[in-house]
Design brief:
mainly alpha; Growth Hormone, Chain: A; globular
Length: about 400
């Protein structure tokens, strides 16, 4: 790790990085609460696991809508105020999940949560990458993306400590806590130094896509592979541990904590490494290194070996992901940096949003055997990430303050 990139930061840069990291962490916390209680929600509403997995699909599928809406608002009115609005919405909708009286309303709330969730990543990443010095982008990229497994880690801890006392509805009530972040942003985070109202107002998405359609298509394909890589290894893993291995909630929570620690370490390590080694090469290496760990992660018979396999799989999955915030923002057209990275990311999410239902149905058709479904998706996604990264380009040292 290069400690040189961490020196000489202004207080503004520190606050911006902290706010963006916490925004993505708490967004992910609200999202991942559901993956621990899919079986419980299905039992309460009298339906199959695959029906509740549809809620995960709807959340992911609606994220591109939020990325586009909030991204355009951020390009037009500034990153800071729209980030606060977005945090408020996803906090309220996470809290509202606790009061869903039936399956239909539950699905509607989780779909709306997906819209709010989709807005945070693009705004936070653009605000941060436009604020920090270029030589710090690799480390900061890994740190920002590590917010996602950090949120998963917090959800794991909340599930382990609180579930037996407050149930699945009580867990979602905890989802209102991220709203406190709004006060921190309002007090400590200024507007991006690279945001320009006139330049953003003059640009339309039609014009931007007309000029950059090949880049947009490539980025969507890359992010589709990345989202199958992450969600294919994350979303149904607790269900796999519960239904196939019949582990109790504390064992599931402990394994989830272990693999999310691996994810955090991987994201920061490989994100930092990409500053000197290159974005594309780092993504390729990390994706390919995940392959040897997949057998241990999906087919082991004990909690210890599953935990070890899960640690290494998530270390490399999120290692590749740690490069993404910097890479997409560096490739992005300057006049649409609030919109472009988040939108192509979430469109990839939309295409990959069928993953949870797909894996659940494959498992259910094989007597609740999740191993093949998990391993198959993980292997194909890892190879796709490596191939698409190899075919692409990068703009590691681009000046983000330069006019588009």
């Amino acid at each position: 790790m290069s400690f040189e990139s961490m020196r000489g930061w202004s207080s503004t840069q520190k606050h911006v990085v902290a706010a963006s990291y916490l925004g993505w962490t708490l967004d992910a916390f609200d999202f991942f609460l559901l993956v621990f209680v899919i079986k419980d929600v299905a039992g309460e509403f009298g339906t199959a696991v695959s029906a509740i997995a549809l809620a995960v699909t709807l959340t992911l599928a609606l994220r591109p809508v939020g990325a586009f809406i909030f991204g355009r608002l951020a390009d037009r009115f500034g990153r800071r105020p729209i980030l606060m609005l977005d945090v408020a919405l996803y906090s309220v909708l996470g809290f509202a999940t606790a009061f869903a009286p039936n399956l239909s309303i539950f699905l509607v709330i989780r779909a709306l949560f997906g819209v709010a969730m989709g807005g945070e990543w693009g705004i936070g990443a653009s605000l941060t990458m436009e604020t920090v010095k270029p030589q710090a982008r690799g480390f900061v990229s890994g740190l920002l993306q590590a917010g996602y497994p950090t949120g998963y880690l917090l959800a794991s801890v909340a599930y382990g400590l609180l579930y037996s006392h407050i149930g699945w509805r009580g867990l979602f009530m905890v989802g209102i806590l991220p709203a406190v972040l709004i006060l921190y942003i309002r007090r400590n985070v200024p507007e991006s130094p690279a945001w320009n109202r006139e330049r953003a107002s003059a640009a339309t998405m039609v014009n931007i896509l007309a000029r950059h359609w090949q880049l947009a298509l490539y980025a969507i394909l890359l992010m589709t592979a990345f989202n199958f890589f992450s969600h294919g290894t994350q979303d149904l893993y607790p269900t796999f541990l519960q239904k196939q291995h019949h582990f109790d909630h504390m064992t599931v929570s402990t394994i989830a904590v272990i693999y999310n620690i691996g994810a955090i370490l991987g994201g920061i390590s490989f994100g930092t490494f990409s500053q000197s080694f290159g974005r594309r090469r780092t993504m390729i290496v990390s994706a390919l290194l995940s392959l040897p760990a997949i057998w241990l992660w999906a087919f082991s018979g004990t909690a210890l070996l599953l935990g070890v396999g899960a640690f290494f799989v998530q270390f490399f999955v999120q290692g590749a992901w740690g490069v993404v915030p910097a890479h997409l923002n560096e490739l992005s057209p300057a006049e649409a940096r609030g919109t472009f990275p988040g939108t192509v990311y979430q469109l990839g999410n939309f295409i990959a949003s069928s993953n949870a239902v797909l894996q659940a149905r494959i498992a259910e058709s094989h007597q609740n055997n999740y191993s093949v479904a998990l391993a198959g998706v993980a292997i194909i996604a890892a190879l796709a990430v490596a191939l698409l990264a190899w075919l692409g380009r990068e703009a590691r040292d681009v000046d983000m303050a330069a006019p588009g």
